[in-house]
Amino acid sequence: MVKISVLQHAPSTHLPARPGDPTPVQRNLDPLLHPFSRARERTRALNATKMERMFAKPFIASLEGHVDAVEVMARKPDSVTDVASASWDGEIILHNLATRTRLAKIPGAHKGKISGLCFSGQTRMLSCGVDHNIKMWDIRPSGDDSMGAGPSEPKPLYVYPGKSVFKSAPVSNLTFPTSTETITAVRFNAAEPSVLASIGTDRTFALYDIRTGKAERRLIMQMRNNSLSWSPTFPTSVLLASEDHNLVLSTLFTADARFVLSGSDDGNIRIWKANASEKLGIITARERAAIEYRDSLKERWKMDAQIGKVQRSRHIPKPVYKAGQLKHTMLEAQRVKEERRRKHTRAGENKPKAERKKVVIAEQT
């Protein structure tokens, strides 16, 4: 009788564990067998950086409807897509970001500029303006393109005159010791409800703690800030709208922090991606793993000269490119001048200032 020996391999070593999983690949991780692994990794990082710049298109859409500058915006708390905006002509519009349509409109809500807007619950909205009135609106959908009492003229539910609403004595008085500014906007941090941020007319950005009842920190910026918004997913990040190039009056993060809304004096609300090269739509598990791998490569090789050059490049329209080129020439001349001053004067004893800190003139605690 002939004896037969059969070689048997476990299916788990060469077949997927579940339907749809990738086929297992056997690799030897010995670095002696892969002398060009670092060169391959750098090439992958360079290709990942080029792909990021290739797909970097942050602008998504523009929401129209206002005829004057957009002063404030507010996000509906129970919805991811509904956002309200108010302009200088006293008009309030409720937008839907998903369909990019106008849900409702309140013309002439206030006499003059609307300076504040917020939601109270799911069906109430509060607005205040330079006419010294606070008005409450019913935002439940109706058959026509208006909100309030009827189809002819939208009317507020309540009107509170400014001097009769507030108490005679404040519950808490938060101020900076040497501050004489006019506060233009305040925002509470969603993760730390006791932390309050404010901006003023003297180009300051201040942080307060209502538990201690005093200001913790204040930054004096180069440009005046018109609006601020805390990031919903990153509590330590704050978005400031300033007057550095164009007049941006209001900014707002969406509920998932993937998009940024900006309102300016041209009457448009523009939707931008927070990550310029992020893909919109459904992402599979394998695609997400590939994106995370490319991000780790870019972070690891960001100090490489060629990769850094590609990462700093921007594809923009020619007028914007020419304006940026002119500003780059001016900044380069200023940098050379500061470098020479640092070499030949006593000011060279100090370290050069980081780019992110150059917009901050002074920090006070």
Automatic annotation (TrEMBL):
**Gene Ontology terms: cellular component:** small-subunit processome
GO biological process, alphabetically ordered: maturation of SSU-rRNA from tricistronic rRNA transcript (SSU-rRNA, 5.8S rRNA, LSU-rRNA); protein ubiquitination
Q: Which residues form the Sof1-like protein domain?
A: 274-360
| UniProt repeat feature WD, residue ranges | 107-140, 241-282
Q: Spell out the PROSITE patterns in the cross-references.
A: WD_REPEATS_1 (PS00678), WD_REPEATS_2 (PS50082), WD_REPEATS_REGION (PS50294)
InterPro entries, A to Z: Sof1, WD40/YVTN_repeat-like_dom_sf, WD40_repeat_CS, WD40_repeat_dom_sf, WD40_rpt, WD_repeat_DCAF13/WDSOF1
Spans annotated as Disordered = 1-30, 335-365
Regions of compositional bias (Basic and acidic residues) in chain numbering: 346-365
For this UniProt record, the keywords arranged alphabetically read as follows: Nucleus, Repeat, Ribonucleoprotein, WD repeat
Family per similarity comment: Belongs to the WD repeat DCAF13/WDSOF1 family.
Listed name of the protein: DDB1- and CUL4-associated factor 13
Q: Which organism is it from?
A: Bondarzewia mesenterica
